[in-house]
Amino acid sequence: MTFSAVIVAAGRGQRFGDAKHLLEIDDTPLWKICERVLTDAGAVSTVVVGDVPGGIQGGERRRDSVAIGVRAVEDSEFVLVHDVARPLATVDLIERVVTRLAVGDVDGVVPIVPVRDALKHVAGDMIAASVDRSNMAAVQTPQGFVTRSLLLAHEHSSEDAADDAELIERWGGTVATVQGDATNVKITYPEDLLLVRALWSARS
């Protein structure tokens, strides 16, 4: 199957303290690293949504930026949506997502990793209850979708969402999972960048 890709790089990086699309690893911008790995995995076209060379202007929220990017590649039957804050995604991971999506029985596919830490409901500074983590998972990107399904899901709900899979769920679509990658770390805080650079160096 052929697919296109959207790299979301329009965030303000409020928790990090700077726009993450400006960050570099070995003198290479994160968006360029993401673009290369998606191309290596077979993306026929890649759109970067953000203030980067050749990029397109993003929206107010992440979901708005995704919608803008997906509309730019809506002629593709399938689309992968990837966050620029995850520069360590591998070709193997992308191929797992694409292979599952190609089966054709779901609207979306997301990579997941087990939750390693104990989970608690909290009220203020007090623990209210413990959470069974046996059926919990952390979700990563890239996430793959049937392009038409993702566009319809965006049109169905105007409320914000944690990711595009949540919009598919609200719309009533189906989302499958594949094994994620523990090293596919998301850069949220400055210390995450240190970890990502260390992992990148170890790979090299």
Can you walk through the features of this model?
The protein has a single domain, classed as Spore Coat Polysaccharide Biosynthesis Protein SpsA, Chain A. The chain contains six helices and eleven strands. The strands form three sheets. Strands 1, 4, 5, 6, 9, 10 and 11 form a seven-stranded mixed beta sheet that branches. A two-stranded antiparallel sheet has the order 2-3. The chain has a two-stranded antiparallel sheet with strand order 7-8. Strand 7 and strand 8 form a beta hairpin. Helix 2 packs across helix 4 and helix 4 crosses helix 5. The mean pLDDT is 93.
Structural class: alpha/beta
Overall average residue pLDDT: 93
CATH topology: Spore Coat Polysaccharide Biosynthesis Protein SpsA, Chain A
Spell out the CATH superfamily: Spore Coat Polysaccharide Biosynthesis Protein SpsA, Chain A
Total number of domains: 1
The poorly predicted ranges are none
Distance between the termini: 30 Å
CATH architecture: Alpha-Beta Complex
- SSE arrangement, N to C: EEEHEHEHEEEEEHHEH
